Structure formats: structure tokens, C-alpha cells
Amino acid sequence: MSIDFRVVFGLAGVPPHDDPRAYEWERRLHWLMLLVSVLAIPAYYLEEVAASPLLHSVGVAVDTFILVAFSVEMTLMLRVTRQKRLYLIYNWIDVFIIFGSAGAFLGAGTEWVAMIRLLRMAVIGMMLLRTISSVRQLFSPDGLPYIFAFGMITMVVGGTIFFLVEPTINNIGEGMWLAFTTAATVGYGDLVPTTPISRIFSVFLVLVGYSMIGALTASIASILIGADEKRLRREMHHDIQLLRHEVQQLRDEVRQLNHALQEEELPEARLRGHRPHALDEDEFAP
Question: How far is 9 from 114, CA to CA, in rounded Å?
Fold first, then answer.
């Protein structure tokens, strides 16, 4: 018996044999919720690390937006899904994100600061897990635009975070350049992270950069290989059509043959019906 790990990790999406509208809405909201999940990282930095009260307020606003976005998505999907209980089981990670974000938001400023921070880190981990599960869709010819879009967003967000947490960065442009050289593992040395926070964030950017380079390479390879696959599919489709045509011809011939045999047997059956039959003993009874 095979185990569906998507169900185990709460990433299964809409259950099988559900309302077609549910699959359509899941497809529409997929990339939007992916971008919302990515916002959890800068929100955590702004809310937990930023010294400025204004940046802290921005982090709280982003966290609130994430909570509202996931709540709206869950409410909408429960409205269009027929198997509501099964949908919650299949997507328990979204339920955890909603309740975890709400708990961290409501518990801010209380004596449970350490527990709230741990809960917020768990929520970010769940969001990253959901984001990573979506990377598999990038390994296709259609995923190339999404790779570039995700890379640009990563550079902008990374540059902004470097501008906020790295004292040697004077503007967002320099932050984006440091984010690019870090993610691409170029390391020119003109700009380097110096604080522990920016170095930790650099590790994250390196991992993202490796993932994006791998996804970009796989997507380009799929484009090159995809031409041969399309040609093979066209040939296979043509062969299937010919096979169907031949089968239909054989069916027509068998049908005509059966019809001809029935017409030949019909006169003989009529003649046999008029032949004298054996007399029954009751016919001789007085």
C-alpha cells in the first residue's frame, strides 16, 4: 500500500472526485498564495529584528495581511468544495498556518514571548514547506516565466532586507546587488554581510539561489527535450487515429457480414417453418 506524502504533509489540495469549481479556484489561487507565503520571511525580520517602530509596524501589517489572505483562501475553498472535512484533512498545514498566525498575532506583547516566537517560526516553516512543494511545477517549459518572476521578487525582497539589517548597505540598489551576488554565489567582495543577522539571511539566499539555478536549468532542458516529446506525441496520436479507423472498418465489415448471413438464413428458416412436422400423439386422440 503506497503512502501519499502530500496528504501526510497537508499539501494534497482538493480531494479527488470533487466539484470542478474547486480545482479551478485552486489553480487560480496557487501562485498568489505562493507569493503570500514568501512574505512571511521579511515579515518576521521586520517584526522581530527591526529596531525602528515604523518597520515593526510594517511587519505586523504584513503578518496581518498573511493571516487574512490564508483565511480568505480557506473560506473560499470550503465554499466551493463538496468534501469539506476531507479538504481540511488534506490541507491541515493551511489550518495550522491560520491558527498559528492568529495565535502569534493575539499573543504578541504577552508574557509568552518565547512561545509566540517559536510558534511564529513554526508557521514560517510550514509556509516554506508549502512553497517548496510548489517548486515541482517550475520544472516544465511553462514554468520559465514563473522562475524569472520569482527570482525578481526574491532579489527585491532580499535587497530590501539587506538594506534594513546590514549597516554597510546605503540604499536598496546596493542591497539588491548584494542579494544577487549572494544568491548566484558569485561573491565579488565589493559588498559583504557583516552582521550575524545578515549572514544568516545570506545562507537562506544561497539556498534559494541554488534552487532557482537548478529550476532554471531543468526548465531550459525541458524546453529542449519538449520538442522531441511533442513530435513523438503527434506521431503517437496519428498512429492511434489510424488504428481507430482500421478498427472501425473491421467493425463495419463484420456488421455487413452478419447482415448478409442473416439474409441468407432467413429463407431457409421460412422453408423449415412450412415443412410437415412430426405429429403429436394427442392429435390422434378421439
Answer: 26
pTM above 0.85, yes or no: no
Amino acid, single-letter form, for residue 167: P
Measured distance CA(178)–CA(149) in Å, rounded: 19
CA separation for the pair 249, 217 (Å, rounded): 48
pLDDT in tens, the chain (286 residues): 456 667 777 777 888 888 888 888 888 887 788 777 777 777 777 776 666 777 778 878 888 888 888 899 899 999 999 989 998 988 888 888 788 778 766 665 554 545 655 656 666 666 666 666 555 555 555 666 777 777 788 888 888 888 888 888 888 889 999 988 888 888 888 888 888 878 878 887 887 787 777 777 776 776 667 666 667 777 888 888 889 888 988 888 888 888 877 777 666 655 555 544 444 444 434 4
